[in-house]
From TrEMBL:
Protein keywords: Pyridoxal phosphate
SUPFAM superfamilies: D-aminoacid aminotransferase-like PLP-dependent enzymes
Sequence similarity: Belongs to the class-IV pyridoxal-phosphate-dependent aminotransferase family.
GO CC entries: cytosol
Stored Gene3D superfamilies: 3.30.470.10, D-amino Acid Aminotransferase, subunit A, domain 2
PROSITE patterns registered for this protein in UniProt: AA_TRANSFER_CLASS_4 (PS00770)
Necessary cofactors: pyridoxal 5'-phosphate
A Pfam family recorded for this sequence: Aminotran_4
Keyword flag Ribonucleoprotein: no
Protein name, as recorded: Branched-chain-amino-acid transaminase
GO molecular function: catalytic activity
Species whose genome carries this gene: marine sediment metagenome
Example GO biological process: amino acid biosynthetic process
Length: 283
């Protein structure tokens, strides 16, 4: 059976799901999205994802009037209709039909929910870890946009393409001040002398839901953690490093450019944090 896409109160087969050509998300990237996954049929940290999406809608001035509870119910309904496990869940709120002015925003935003079967990363990926490449593109540390998952995702796409063209799985972005920012699709953590270090939010990064979970796990496990501006050299000299997002969970980062991290193998503290994360997602 073809996947069913939710659009503004109705379900459509994915091949027939459409939006208008004057839609603001299509014309200008004026919209917000969230990407989630299920564990045993339930979305991990659903309420946090929904809250972040609604906060970002308010930031963009999109008059989306669904409450957190109402949006969560629609997402759950979409999961029941599609019955795919594990599921990849993408929720999009875009600004709706635009008028002739660039700044005009329609009074009826579009809500789109896409459910597809998730293909998890292989165990071999986690055993080997990812290779990262520092790309030429820079994240603007002074812009508020990196704090939001905007539909205008071109910077991330270009960074990821540059990394893949050079044989790496992830792009490592520095910011406009030259400090470490994030990956094209991930947040970055490193370890030095058994302390976890991650770029602070003022480095021009997304406040990732998985990132926040890692902060809480470190507190639970009493692992020292610091959020601050991070030099690239610190990553290159790290004892361990890993990447996070909701789909990949915690992916060891074992090489950056020509530098091996942790002897080119996933680290023990990374595995300890990963075990706790897996425990939480499967509770």
């Amino acid at each position: 059976m073809e996947n069913q896409v939710y659009i503004n109160g109705n379900f459509f087969p994915e091949s027939r799901a459409k939006i208008g050509i004057n839609e603001g998300g299509f014309l200008f990237g004026n919209g917000i999205f969230e990407t989630m996954r299920t564990y045993s049929g339930s979305i991990f940290k659903l309420s946090q994802h929904v809250k972040r999406l609604l906060d970002s809608c308010r930031f963009l001035g999109i008059p989306f009037e669904e409450t957190e509870e109402e949006l969560e119910q629609k997402i759950e309904e979409s999961l029941k209709i599609n019955q795919v496990f594990p599921a990849y869940v993408k929720v999009i709120v875009s600004s709706g039909e635009h008028g002739s002015s660039l700044t005009s925003v329609g009074s009826h935003p579009n809500l789109i929910i896409i459910i597809r079967k998730l293909t998890p990363y292989s165990r071999a990926c986690y055993r080997k870890g990812f290779t990262g490449i520092v790309v030429s593109l820079r994240r603007n540390a002074f812009s508020p946009l990196p704090l939001h998952k905007s539909l205008s995702f071109l910077e991330n796409l270009l960074a990821k393409r540059e990394a893949e063209d050079k044989g790496a799985e992830e792009a490592i972005l520095l910011n406009s001040e030259g400090y470490l920012a994030e990956g094209a699709i991930s947040n970055i953590f490193l370890l030095r002398d058994e302390e976890v270090i991650t770029p602070s939010l003022n480095s021009g990064i997304l406040p990732g839901i998985t990132r926040q979970t890692i902060l809480q796990i470190c507190a639970t496990l009493k692992i020292p953690l610091e959020q601050r501006k991070v030099e690239l050299e610190e990553l290159l000299r790290a004892d361990e490093a890993f990447l996070t997002n909701s789909l990949m969970e915690i992916m060891p980062l074992t090489r950056v450019n020509s530098h091996c991290i942790g002897g080119g193998k996933p680290g023990k503290i990374t595995e300890k944090i990963s075990q706790e994360y897996r425990k939480q997602t499967r509770m």
